[in-house]
Amino acid sequence: MKNIVLLDSQTLGECDLKVFEQFGNFTHYPTTNPQEILQRCQDAHIILTNKVILDADTLAKLPKLELICITATGTNNVDLEYAKQKGIAVKNVAGYSTNAVAQHTLMMALYFLGNLGYYDNYCKSGEWSRSAIFTHIKDPIRELDGLEWGIIGLGTIGQRVAHLAQSFGAKVSYHSTSGNNKNAQYPHKDLDSLLRTSDVISIHAPLNLQTNNLLNANNLTLLKDHTILLNVGRGGIVNEADIAHILESKPFYFGTDVLAKEPMESNHPLLNPKIAHKLLITPHYAWAYDKARTRLLEGVIKNIAEFVK
Fold first, then answer.
1. Is 95 left (phi over 0), alpha (psi -120 to 50) or beta?
2. What keywords would UniProt list here (predicted)?
C-alpha cells in the first residue's frame, strides 16, 4: 500500500480529492511551508505538489520516495537532476490549460478594448443616472478587427490565442524567444519590431535565460500609445518595476495573471493608484477554469496509475 501526500491542495481549488485514495493511504494539506515538508513526507512513496519546492537536500532525506507528481506543467520546483540520480520518477501534466489560458487572454484584451473598467464604474457610481442622454462614450473603445496582435511565444497556447484573435479579424504575428519556432502560418518579427507595430501583445513564453527580464525599461518605451500588453506566461518576463514606472507617463495598458513573486507583495509597484486605470491583474488563475482543472486531475491520476502499474 502506497503512502501518498498532497502538499498544497488549496492550489487546486474545490475538487474531489478522494479519487487519490484508490492508490493507497492518502493525506493532503492545504499548504505546506519548507519546515513542514520532511515531517509530512517522511513515509511518503508518492508526493503531489504544485508549487512546494523539493530540492536536493529535501529529497535526500526522503528514503521511501518513489514518485513526484507535479499538479501543473512547470517542473522548476523540483531538482530534476538529483531526482533522476536517486531513481525518483517525476511526472507533470501538460496541455490541460490551453483553452483556459487562451480564453483568459482574450478576455483581458476585450476588457481593455471596451474600456470596461471605466464604464462599469461610470454606471455603478451613479454617473449614468445623472446623465441627460441615453448613452455615454469615452475614448478609446476599439474593435479588435483589423488590429495587429503580436504573440511572444507561439507554442500550443500561443497558437490557440492566434486562432481566437484571427476569428475577431486581428492580424497575427509572433516572436520566437528561442529562435527555433518557425511557423509559416504567421509572420515572424524580431522583438523590437513586434513591440513597435502591435496593438495587442500577449506573452505565452516560459521563464528561462532567454525570457527573464525580456521586457524592461529599454524596450517597453517602444510600445505605441494605447497598446495592450498581456502577460499570461510567467512572472519575471516583464520587469514589473519598470513597467509600473513607464505606465505613469505613457498611455498604454498592462494586464497580467502572473508576477515574479507570488502571492503579490503588499508594496508591489503595480499597486500604485496613479496607474490603476491602466491595469488588470488576476491572481494566477488563468490555468484554473473548470474543465482545465478536471483535465489536470485526470492527468495526475493517469500518471499515478501508470507508475503503480
1. left
2. NAD, Oxidoreductase
